[in-house]
Every structure is written in C-alpha cells, then in structure tokens.
Automatic annotation (TrEMBL), chain A:
InterPro entries assigned to the protein according to its UniProt record, in alphabetical order: AAA+_ATPase, ABC_transporter-like_ATP-bd, ABC_Transporter_VariousFunc, P-loop_NTPase
Pfam families: ABC_tran
Protein name, per record: ABC transporter ATP-binding protein
ABC transporter domain ranges (all copies): 10-237
Superkingdom to which the source organism belongs: Bacteria
Lineage of origin: Bacteria, Bacillati, Actinomycetota, Actinomycetes, Kitasatosporales
Keyword Nucleotide-binding attached: yes
Organism in which the protein naturally occurs: Streptomyces hyderabadensis
Any GO molecular function: ATP binding
Keywords from the UniProt entry: ATP-binding, Nucleotide-binding, Transport
Automatic annotation (TrEMBL), chain B:
UniProt KW Transferase keyword: no
A Pfam family reported for this protein in Swiss-Prot or TrEMBL: GntR
Highest rank taxon of the organism: Bacteria
Protein name: GntR family transcriptional regulator
Stretches assigned to the HTH gntR-type domain: 16-84
The organism of origin for this protein: Streptomyces hyderabadensis
InterPro entries recorded: Tscrpt_reg_HTH_GntR (IPR000524), WH-like_DNA-bd_sf (IPR036388), WH_DNA-bd_sf (IPR036390)
Lineage: Bacteria, Bacillati, Actinomycetota, Actinomycetes, Kitasatosporales
SUPFAM superfamilies: Winged helix' DNA-binding domain
Keywords of this entry: DNA-binding, Transcription, Transcription regulation
Residue numbers spanned by region Disordered: 125-146
Length: 296, 146
C-alpha cells in the first residue's frame, strides 16, 4: 500500500522539548519513525511526554531541540494544517453551539477539505441529534462530536490524545469501531494515546512507547509479540537469562517470572508463554523495567 | 450471491491473532455449509465497524485465504467464496448430525455437563486415532515426549 519512498506519518530526529517553567525536559533525544497507514498506540505513564509529543506533531508546540516531520513536512506548515488533524484532551467545543452549528463551523474552518457527509455520519452513528446542544451531551457523545470535526476534515494523519479517557467500555468500542471503519475506507494514519491497554490489543499495529521523555519502543505490534516471551521457572535458572534482554522480572518465593526479548534460544528449563501485547507494554512501562540500552 | 452470511466474533483475550480467528471462523462456516461458493464475505469496513479491530487485520486474513484458494477478491465488488470445505455429513439436516444430537441429549439427561461431553468426544477421537495409527499427529508426539 505504501511505497518505501513515501514520507513517514511521523519522523523525529533528536527531538526534545522543555517547558520553560519546569526547567526539566518533557521530551529528550527522541528519534523514531512511524510509517504511513498505521494505527499507532502511543503509550507511556503519566508525565512520560505523550501529550507533548502530540502537541509537537500537531504544530501546537515547537520543539526546543531537534525536529519532527509529519507526512514529510513541518507541523506548522500550511500543508500539514490541512492534512493533519489533532484532537486534544480538552476537546475544544463550544458548549452553547448545537451539533449542527459545530459541524457548520468545522466546514467553514476547513473549507478546502471538509466532507459534511463523513462528519454527519460519525455523529449519526452515535445516535446524536443535530439539534442537541454540545454542552448538554454526555462525555462519550462530546468525544464523538469532536471526532466528527476531526474526521470531517478528511485528514491523512489523525492525532488523538486520550480519546477514550472517561468513556465506558461500550462507547470506547463504538468510537474505536468508527475510527477503524474510517481507516478501512481510505489511507489514514492514526496515532492515539491511551492508558486503556486492552483496547489497543487488536486495534493498533504500531507501538510508540515513551518512558520518562524518551522513546523506548517504536515498532510493529506483531514484531513485538513475536519478539517477546514470558518465562516462568525456578529462580536457579536465572543465570540463563544473562545473554538476553530481560524487560521485566518478578520473583515470588522460588518462582521467577520474566518478560524477555531473547537473542537466540534460551537455555534452562522454563514454562514458555507468548504474552499478549498488553503484557508486553505493561512490562516496558513498569518500574524496574530495564531501560533500552542498559540491558546488555 | 449473498453478502451478510457470516459475522465474525473476535475474542480479544484468547491470545490468538485476530486474522487467524477470522480465517478459522471462515473455514468453520465453509465446513458447516453456512458459507457457500459464490457468497460474498463482508467488506473490511463492515467487519471493523462491527468488531473494532484493525482493518489491516481483515485485509491480511482475506489475503491469506485468497492464497489458500478459498476466496477471490474482485476489484470493486468484494471478496467471494470460490471453494467449499463442506463435507457430506456436516450439514444441519444430515443423519450424522441427527445421531449426534440424540446422543448429546442422552448425555445431558445422564447428568453430564458441557465440558464432560467435550472431553468424551475428544477421548473417543483420540482412541480412534490410536487404533488407526496412520498419522500420529500432535497429540501422539506429546505423549511420547512425556
């Protein structure tokens, strides 16, 4: 679907950002590439830099170090502004507008690319009346209206900052279904930050994992699944793990459980399981997980 | 030619990749005769709108099945079943099926539960495999290891 020469959805080199007031850097030395056409899970603990990264990609912030490109151009270029949509956590909507007013405003702000049918379909799929006032909608429905604005713009890259936060499981699935259906129909790259790891299991095919302002993983989701094993065995077997990257280990009495990225066959006697994506992400996020470089 | 004949159910906790689940459920539907030659599979968009899974997963499953010669995609029209996996005897109204339904009713009446019934069927199949040891299969090999 995408040729190798096509510019990546996101490409960052030595990207860093510091909020002046805080002194420390929210992001540092981030270098990564997210290919086009992917549905990317942006994961990290609170304060890891997810929102900052999305704001940089959306052109709302400018890097203090290095650079980031979206679809091959600078995030604050005119081209990027029409081809990229960012939905921030505060979902800026006017509470006193009706849904119809809101969509009309979306049309005016994005005259060149606006697709009213898409926007109205997204709203309709949530059973929302066009005459309803935005301020009176439930959080799930407000998210849907904000999403309708973003999708009506027909972006090539959609950046979503915690779109699923505060939503019940049914609404989360419905919103994800709408996003996936949109991505099935045309070339759309999505980067979505979330804490709800199970929701990402079957939806995301690329993972961007931040840890304390650095990129720890930027990888294909299936490659991650195939590259990790979950080992359970006697603590005496632990030396066999020395040649491998141990992402996370837990001792309980004589039992050792380790999430490992093997570099070749693992010696010793272990019960071997293939962990689900959720468990791999959790392993990388947990305290005590080995940082990328220091593992060797 | 009908669309709308299968609906995929994705188990997110199973650890089985979603594309494998789609392939297996399609094969199952073909074996049961629920899907027949000429039927149209749901479009990727229909599948993801119902299951909220990644569309690339559906494309991959359909591609795999096309390579296996089960389906063929026709540009702009959809993906169509080209081969049946139905075996005589697996249809809803077959005598084998009726025998089994009667047996299941007896087993349940005798106080067996679902898992007991499944275990019995598996045991009977295993026993049959052992008696006709033409193909040791996976299960046979594991027993040798133990």
């Amino acid at each position: 679907m995408t040729g190798p020469d096509e510019p990546a959805a996101l490409h960052a080199t030595e990207l860093g950002f510091g909020y002046r007031a805080r002194g420390d850097r929210a992001l540092r030395d981030c270098g990564f590439t997210v290919p086009r056409g992917r549905i990317t899970a942006l994961v990290g603990r609170n304060g890891a830099g997810k929102s900052t990264l999305l704001h940089l990609a959306g052109g709302l912030l400018r890097p203090t170090h290095g650079r980031i490109r979206v679809l091959g151009t600078a995030p604050d270029s005119a081209g990027a502004r029409t081809r990229v949509a960012l939905l921030t956590q505060d979902k800026p909507l006017y509470p006193r507008f009706t849904v119809a007013d809101t969509l009309r405003m979306g049309g005016k702000l994005n005259a060149s690319s606006w697709d009213r049918r898409v926007a109205e379909r997204v709203v309709r799929e949530g059973g929302i009346a066009l005459s309803a006032r935005v301020g009176e909608l439930s959080p799930g429905r407000r998210t849907r209206v904000a999403l309708a604005l973003a999708l009506g713009k027909r972006p090539e890259l959609l950046l979503l900052d915690e779109p699923l936060a505060d939503l019940d499981p049914v609404v989360r699935t419905e919103i994800m279904a709408t996003l996936m259906a949109e991505a099935a129909e045309r070339e759309l790259s999505i980067v979505l930050s979330s804490h709800v790891l199970p929701d990402l299991e079957q939806t995301c095919d690329w993972v961007l994992l931040l840890r304390a302002g650095r990129v720890e993983l930027s990888e294909d989701a299936d490659a991650l699944r195939e590259g990790h094993t979950l080992l359970t065995g006697h603590v005496d077997e632990e030396p066999a793990l020395r040649e491998h990257t141990v992402v996370h280990r837990r001792r309980h009495g004589r039992q050792l459980t380790a999430l490992v990225r093997p570099r070749g066959p693992v010696g010793g006697s272990w019960h071997v399981e293939r962990p689900p994506l959720e468990e791999i992400l959790l392993g990388h996020l947990q305290d005590g997980a080995a940082p990328k470089e220091a593992a060797a | 030619m009908e669309g709308d004949v299968v609906e995929y159910r994705i188990d997110r906790q199973s650890g089985i990749p979603a594309y494998v689940q789609i392939v297996r459920q399609t094969e199952q539907a073909l074996r049961m005769g629920v899907l027949q030659v000429g039927d149209r599979l749901p479009t990727a968009k229909e599948v993801v709108a119902a299951t909220a899974i990644n569309p690339n997963t559906v494309f991959r499953a359909y591609r795999d099945m096309e390579q296996a010669g089960l389906v063929r995609s026709r540009r702009g029209l959809g993906t169509f079943v080209t081969r049946s996996l139905a075996r005589p005897g697996a249809e809803d109204d077959s005598p084998l099926r009726a025998d089994l339904a009667a047996w299941v009713a007896r087993a349940l009446a005798a106080g067996l539960e679902r898992d007991d019934v499944l275990a019995l069927v598996t045991a009977a199949l295993d026993e049959h495999d052992e008696q006709h040891e033409h193909d040791p299969g996976d299960r046979g090999r594991k027993q040798e290891d133990a």
